[in-house]
Design brief:
Distance between the termini: 23 Å
Number of helices: 2
Number of strands: 27
Largest sheet: 20 strands, antiparallel
Structural class: mainly beta
Order of helices and strands: EEEEEEEEEEEHEEEEEEEEEEEEEEEEH
Radius of gyration: 27 Å
Helix content: under 10%
Length: 550
């Protein structure tokens, strides 16, 4: 595979006066990738004592174009910390993927079976994403504050996949209707929130809030006019916490919240993926969002500026958990019964456990952040199949080490380990606006009521060196997944068969970044509260371990 990215991002702030600021920003990006594959596939079926194989050559080219525009307005009231922000964002992406396939099948004796099958695949899609929101903060007095806001989200996606097969009688490519699809998707979300915070005493503070939300999505098979619709006219998502300040260095907090976890587009699209004829995949357009209720007790101890620990116990119950499931059905394309891997809403899923996070400056040259999470998780899928229950005790650990060396050099290692589990630790949702997408679970893996997530681990590293007297110039070298172990693996046990699946989302790669700072800028002038940000990384961590989106 060969290819590359090209992206631009820019904007400016116009200070209308000392109370009003207008911001305009935009982005543009494009990519082109070309792949050449040579595939040899052999299938050995013990039940029928039959062996077959095929060779396939393929050439593909994929292009992607994305652009966006964002307008922001901020007004500061005469009262200290009272402010109003209004934001509107528009993003649009267009993708095209053209591929050619040449496949030759063989008998067990290696004699060719039939002529070479020539296929063409023409795919294109669009994605439009519009968000408009407003946030208002009013500090009523020195002890209480009200925050409120409203947001509209509109997401429109089209997906066209036409497959052609060469006709040796007409010397032309014929459209293969049963493996072609045209799908439109529209999702609309309307949400509003209200939060009230108050210091009840010198040691106790509390916050209560509620988010009201109405959502709607519709998918349409354009060729047949068949539609799939899910609508939730009105939902409430309360949240709250209370904090007890034990002393100047210790806090104890209890929190509770309700969130929504929406199915992703790939989980909803109703077309069969024939990449592996023995392991077909299909989305479920009738999926509904899952709803979770989470409860936490946190203890924070700040020994000094160099050493902090956070201990937590938590419980999370998710109703309608999105899970993978296998079904047996007759397929008219393959002319036989096949096993379909798809998605369903299980009765519920749960996880509870204890977590410990420690940030320590071990010395002037070494900082460490450690996270350990011991948890039990399970899925109740009896609505899908009798006695379909799955649970397991698991653990997760993450370690970040930062070495501050002489000569303005910093080295950082970042790694994690997840044991065998039913549901990954963490999850979707959170923030004032809640979850606006998700994969049915954290970690990029959809939980399965019929199997387990296998252990996995990874390690990244980065080295950064600053140059010049004022450290204006810096070079950062990153290594992603040093040992090539960042693989998502699952075991599935069903009445049809047992299988182990491994998927690698990102390959090992190396990245070099060069940064030069022109003069000194007071970025506090541009600072704005980002109410959707959930990042827990420091600026140094983001700089060193940052992703491709920077």
């Amino acid at each position: 595979m060969n290819g590359g990215f090209l992206s631009f991002r820019g904007g400016f702030d116009y200070f209308i006066d000392n109370r009003n600021t207008l911001t305009i920003s935009g982005s543009y990006g494009q990519s082109l990738f070309k792949t050449n594959d040579y595939l040899h596939n052999t299938t050995d079926t013990l039940s029928s004592n039959n062996t077959s194989s095929y060779y396939r050559l393929s050439d593909a080219a994929r292009t992607f174009l994305n652009h966006g525009l964002k307008l922001s307005f901020k007004h500061l009231f005469p009262k200290q910390d009272e402010e109003l922000t209004v934001n509107a964002t528009y993003q649009q992406g267009v993708s095209n993927n053209n591929a050619s396939y040449y496949t030759q099948y063989y008998y067990a004796n290696n004699n060719p079976f039939g002529p070479v099958i020539q296929q063409e695949q023409l795919m294109n899609g669009t994605n439009r994403y519009i968000v408009a929101k407003t946030d208002y903060t009013d500090p009523i007095n020195s002890k209480s504050k009200i925050e409120s806001g409203f947001m509209v989200t509109i997401n429109q996606t089209t997906s066209l996949d036409n497959n052609y097969i060469f006709n040796y009688f007409t010397n032309e490519y014929d459209l293969f209707n049963t493996e072609s699809n045209d799908f439109d998707f529209n999702q609309q979300i309307y949400a509003a929130y209200l939060i009230y915070s108050r210091d009840l005493s010198s040691r106790i503070s509390a916050q209560v809030g509620v988010r009201a939300e109405s959502s709607y999505y519709q998918g349409e098979l354009v060729d047949s006019g068949k539609t799939f619709t899910n609508q939730f006219p009105f939902e409430l998502f309360p949240s709250g916490f209370i904090t007890y300040h034990i002393n100047e260095t210790s806090d104890l907090q209890f929190s509770a919240a309700r969130h929504i976890i929406r199915p992703s587009f790939s989980q909803l699209i109703p077309f069969i993926d024939y990449t592996d004829s023995l392991n077909l995949k299909q989305g479920n357009p009738n999926l509904k969002p899952a709803f979770s209720n989470s409860f936490e007790i946190n203890y924070l101890k700040n020994f000094n500026r160099r050493n902090v620990i956070l201990a937590s116990v938590y419980y999370k119950l998710t109703t309608g958990l999105i899970t993978t499931i296998q079904d047996l059905e007759y397929n008219s394309v393959l002319n036989r019964e096949v096993v379909i891997n798809t998605y369903e809403n299980a009765n519920s899923g749960y996880s509870y456990g204890a977590e410990l996070t420690s940030q320590n400056s071990i010395s002037k040259w070494l900082d460490a952040t450690t996270n350990v999470n011991l948890f039990e998780s399970g899925i109740n899928g009896e609505n899908l199949s009798p006695d379909l229950n799955n649970q397991l005790l698991s653990w997760f650990a993450k370690l970040n080490l930062t070495f501050k060396l002489p000569w303005n050099t910093t080295i950082q290692f970042n790694g994690s380990y997840l044991s065998k589990a039913v549901i990954p630790p963490g999850g979707s949702g959170g923030g004032r606006w809640g979850g606006y997408g998700g994969s049915g679970g954290g970690g990029g893996i959809t939980p399965s009521a019929e199997g387990y997530i296998l252990p996995n681990y990874w390690l990244d590293a980065a080295i950064k060196k600053d140059f010049l007297k004022k450290k204006n110039l810096s070079i950062t070298f990153n290594i992603h997944d040093i040992f090539g172990t960042a693989v998502s693996s699952t075991d599935t046990y069903t009445q049809f068969f047992t299988q182990t699946t491994e998927r690698r989302k990102d390959p090992q790669f190396f990245r070099i970044a060069l940064s030069y700072k022109f003069g000194k800028t007071d970025f506090s002038l541009f600072k704005r509260k980002d109410k959707d940000s959930n990042s827990d990384e420091s600026p140094d961590q983001q700089d060193m371990q940052g992703g491709e989106g920077q």
